[in-house]
Design brief:
Strand order of the largest sheet: 2-1-4-5-3-6
Order of helices and strands: HHHHHEEHHHHEHHHEEHHHEHHHH
Largest sheet: 6 strands, mixed
Strand content: 5-15%
Oligomer: single chain
Number of strands: 6
Number of helices: 19
Structural class: alpha+beta
Length: 432
């Protein structure tokens, strides 16, 4: 028993875990290689945000290896690189009322971030003044120019609805609501398309953040090289930056991102659906993108074997980089700092709100139409733009209409048919 007891006492070392934790805290090993396979979805979204030109500044970070493997599956199995829209909405043809579910990244982000850019688009009056024309003094017929007109319209609708609710409560002897409703009625914002710019990545803060992040990463990676002569971290960082920029430079990105026709005359409505506070109307005016095409997101499938080869080759290089980084055992905290800084940039870009112009879809504000009751708002839109209000009816009122509503919509339909017949006769008269 004595030799056995001696062996147990010799192996019993309560300080061993403490030493291992200390060593791992000083130079964590094998963890970076594990982190490289996490967060691939963040990288994919960041690429979708900035893709367009030959330079897509998405920084080297954790998640690139996972993304590269997923990209191979997507390119070979689904024939695409762009992820589907991460925000659900609908695209309505303003002429015939055809409703299409959206799969386009661009349209999804425009609708998701609408409240951040709705009152920041150039107005027709401002553009007219820039062209040395006399600017109009009103925004739409009978609508005085105001700052942030869409937000003002929403506030007015909500306040009117609140006053109506308080009046009803008083009539019924109930306590008045102390707070206004979070939303009410429908606000229809009208925009006009300007000349689009396909393959335009949007030169804004999210775009330039990638270059700044990459430079800071190289600076961090150079510290152990300058202090200790350890160039391994600088090598991994430089290789990761090159591979990340190369992954975003594949031309297939822009082909899929803007897979649509241009110079359309159509009018489109973008909305989250029934119950939404906003409906966004975009008039093509013979220069805009065809948003029905864009919403389908099926016109840019991978057809070139070279694209698939590039995706597979990049995935192989990312895996080699993963293997190489797993062998680094000294100064690894610098490598963690590089990867952590990169994932912060990726997350910022993936979630950033961007204006339509950053997606190559510059818009011009025309006017806003809103009413506390949705049906009244649709009537008002139909009065200003024949068939446009009717096109939204099936989305916002999928049920049965009452007799008065049916009669009024039938009147609008007769008016639209008469106008169409008149225009047709005018065109035939010109030909003669």
């Amino acid at each position: 028993m004595a030799p056995m007891l001696s062996l147990i006492l010799r192996a019993f070392d309560p300080g061993l875990p403490s030493n291992e934790f200390t060593d791992q805290a000083r130079n964590p090993t094998d963890v970076f290689s594990v982190l490289l396979i996490l967060g691939g979805d963040v990288v994919a979204r960041a690429l979708a945000q900035l893709a367009g030109s030959g330079v897509t500044p998405v920084a080297f970070s954790f998640g690139w290896v996972a993304y590269a493997v997923t990209a191979v599956v997507s390119a070979v199995g689904e024939n695409k690189l762009m992820p589907n829209a991460d925000f659900q909405c609908k695209v309505i043809n303003g002429e015939n009322g055809f409703v299409r579910d959206n799969y386009s990244w661009i349209i999804g982000r425009l609708v998701r971030d609408f409240e951040t850019w709705m009152d920041r688009q150039p107005r027709a009056q401002e553009l007219a003044s820039l062209s040395n024309q006399s600017p109009a003094k009103e925004e739409g017929p009978g609508r005085p120019a105001v700052l942030n007109p869409i937000q003002a319209c929403v506030n007015k609708i909500i306040n009117l609805s609140w006053e109506t609710s308080k009046k009803r409560a008083r009539e019924k002897g109930r306590p008045e609501p102390k707070l206004p409703p979070p939303k009410a009625g429908l606000c229809v914002s009208i925009y006009r398309a300007r000349k689009p710019s396909k393959n335009y990545p949007g030169y804004d803060a999210p775009y330039f953040a990638g270059f700044i992040t990459s430079l800071v990463q190289l600076g961090l990676a150079a510290i152990p090289c300058g202090l200790y002569g350890d160039w391994s971290i600088l090598l991994v960082t430089g290789a990761g930056i090159i591979l990340s920029f190369a992954s975003g430079a594949i031309p297939q990105w822009s082909k899929e991102k803007w897979a649509c026709r241009e110079d359309t005359e159509k009018m489109f409505v973008l909305t989250r659906g029934n119950g939404s506070q906003h409906a966004i109307v975009i008039r093509g005016d013979r220069v805009g993108l065809d948003l029905e095409d864009l919403a389908a997101a099926d016109g840019g499938s991978i057809t070139s074997p070279l694209t698939r080869f590039a995706v597979v080759a990049l995935a192989a290089l990312w895996i080699l980089l993963l293997i190489a980084s797993a062998g680094i055992s000294q100064n690894t905290w610098f490598l963690f700092a590089v990867g952590g800084l990169g994932i912060l940039q990726n997350a910022y870009v993936a979630g950033a709100s961007r204006e339509p112009a950053a997606f190559g879809m510059p818009l011009e504000y025309v006017e806003v139409i809103g009413e506390p009751k949705v049906m009244d708002a649709l009537f008002a839109v139909e009065d200003r733009y024949p068939r446009l209000g009717r096109s939204m009816l099936s989305v916002f009122f999928p049920g049965e209409l009452n007799a008065d509503e049916k009669e009024r919509w039938e009147g609008y339909e007769r008016r639209a048919k008469e106008e169409k017949k008149r225009l047709k006769e005018e065109r035939e008269g010109r030909k003669e």
